[in-house]
């Protein structure tokens, strides 16, 4: 199963994603920092997500410096942290996809 990001190539679906930090939340995580395969990624709700429906979350590779900035930003908005399950696969999503 893939996710069409609006471009010409569908994105591959992945499992085993762990949410590390959340930057924005609306009935679930919208964006933040996640770990997959030992690597950190920035994640964001897919562009075709409609509130009230399972959301696709898309992973984007980040550098170590970018990851550090994302962590610092997320730690300034701690209220989201308590609501996030560590196991990203346990969320009601249409899936995790890697860009």
At a glance:
By secondary structure, this protein is mainly beta. It has one helix at 64-75; strands at residues 2-4, 10-14, 18-25, 29-36, 39-45, 55-61, 93-98.
Largest β-sheet summary = 7 strands, mixed
Helicity level: 10-25%
Structural class: mainly beta
Strand content: 35-45%
- Report the average pLDDT across residues: 76
DSSP strand count: 7
Distance between the terminal alpha carbons, to the nearest Å? 14 Å
Q: Which radius of gyration do the C-alpha atoms yield?
A: 13 Å
State the low-pLDDT regions, or none.
Answer: 1-9
What key phrases describe this protein's structure?
single chain; 99 residues; mainly beta; 7-stranded mixed sheet; 1 helix; 44% strand; globular; disordered N terminus
Topology:
Blueprint: E1 2-4, E2 10-14, E3 18-25, E4 29-36, E5 39-45, E6 55-61, H1 64-75, E7 93-98
Q: What would you note in describing this structure?
A:
There is one protein chain. The protein has 99 residues and is mainly beta. The protein contains one helix and seven strands; from the N terminus they run E-E-E-E-E-E-H-E. The protein has one helix spanning 64-75; strands at 2-4, 10-14, 18-25, 29-36, 39-45, 55-61, 93-98. It has a seven-stranded mixed sheet, covered by helices on one side. It starts with a strand and ends with a strand. 25% of the residues are buried.
């Amino acid at each position: 199963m893939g996710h069409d990001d609006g471009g010409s190539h569908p994105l591959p679906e992945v499992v085993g994603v762990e949410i590390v930090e959340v930057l924005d939340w609306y009935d679930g995580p919208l964006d933040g920092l996640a770990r997959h395969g030992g690597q950190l990624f920035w994640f964001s709700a897919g562009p075709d997500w409609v509130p009230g429906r399972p959301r696709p979350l898309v992973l984007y590779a980040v550098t170590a410096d970018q990851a550090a900035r994302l962590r610092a930003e997320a730690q300034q908005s701690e209220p989201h942290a308590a609501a996030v399950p560590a196991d990203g696969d346990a969320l009601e999503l249409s899936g995790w996809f890697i860009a």
